[in-house]
Amino acid sequence: MVDVDTLKAEVKKLSAKAMQAKMDLHDLSEDLPVGVEKVPVVAQRVVETYAALAEARAAIKALEEKA
Prior knowledge:
Keywords: Coiled coil, Nitrogen fixation. By secondary structure, the chain is mainly alpha-helical. It has one domain: Orthogonal Bundle (Helix Hairpins). About 80% of the residues lie in helices and about 0% in strands. It has two helices and no strands. The longest helix has 28 residues, at about 40-65. It is elongated.
C-alpha cells in the first residue's frame, strides 16, 4: 500500500512532467507546419501524463478521506 507522502511526491514529479509535455506541444504548435508529424506523438504524451496526474491526485484524495 502506498502512503500519502509517497503519492504527493509522485504528484510533484508528474506535475513537472505534465508541464513539460504541455510546453513541448505548445512549442511544436508555434512551428507548424514544420514538425506536424510529431503532433500526435506529443499530444498523446500530454494526454497520458495528465491522466496519470489525475489518477495520482484521486488516489491521494481517497487515502485522505479514509483517514
